[in-house]
């Protein structure tokens, strides 16, 4: 799974924001959860979050470029726990993410 997640990140970003080691460490973290978007056996997107008693912190959401604009990120986001506060951070320079999150809040 580590390699498949890394390949999605490489497709989305010029340089993956997470290394293979970081992905592996996160996958093994007891609070980490991953929601996957698949087309057949092909991983086309994912949402990584950590869940505590009171909140779910979104760590990363990525959808391969060829599948962007098809509401896949929205579908991933809709699978977050509904009984928790959603927490996330995004850079001011990441305009597409800011627009996406503002629609979801």
Give your account of this protein's structure.
- It holds the Pfam family Acetyltransf_1.
- It catalyses: N-terminal L-alanyl-[ribosomal protein bS18] + acetyl-CoA = N-terminal N(alpha)-acetyl-L-alanyl-[ribosomal protein bS18] + CoA + H(+).
- Its EC number is 2.3.1.266.
- By secondary structure, the chain is an alpha+beta fold.
- The protein has one domain: Gcn5-related N-acetyltransferase (GNAT) (Aminopeptidase).
- The chain is built from four helices and four strands, in the order ααβββαβα.
- Strands 1-2-3-4 form a four-stranded mixed beta sheet.
- Strand 1 and strand 2 form a beta hairpin.
- Helix 1 packs across helix 2.
- The longest helix has 11 residues.
- It starts with a helix and ends with a helix.
Chart the SSEs and their pairings.
Blueprint lengths: L1 H11 L7 H9 L3 E8 L2 E10 L3 E9 L8 H6 L7 E4 L6 H10 L1
Parallel strand pairs: 3-4
Antiparallel strand pairs: 1-2, 2-3
GO molecular function: protein-N-terminal-alanine acetyltransferase activity
Pfam families: Acetyltransf_1 (PF00583)
Catalytic activity: N-terminal L-alanyl-[ribosomal protein bS18] + acetyl-CoA = N-terminal N(alpha)-acetyl-L-alanyl-[ribosomal protein bS18] + CoA + H(+)
Strand order of the largest sheet: 1-2-3-4
Second rung of CATH, namely the architecture: 3-Layer(aba) Sandwich
Strand element count = 4
Main sheet makeup:
4 strands, mixed
The stretches of 5 or more residues where confidence is low (pLDDT under 50) are none
Can you give the helix content as a percent range?
Answer: 25-40%
């Amino acid at each position: 799974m580590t390699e498949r997640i890394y390949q999605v990140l490489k497709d989305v970003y010029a340089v993956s924001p997470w290394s293979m080691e970081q992905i592996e460490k996160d996958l093994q973290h007891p609070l980490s959860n991953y929601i996957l978007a698949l087309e057949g056996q092909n991983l086309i997107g994912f949402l990584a979050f950590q869940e505590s008693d009171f909140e779910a912190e979104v760590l990363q959401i990525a959808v391969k470029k060829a599948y962007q604009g098809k509401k896949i990120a929205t579908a991933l986001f809709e699978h977050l726990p509904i009984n928790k506060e959603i927490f996330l951070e995004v850079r001011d320079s990441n305009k597409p993410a800011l627009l996406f999150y503002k629609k979801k809040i």
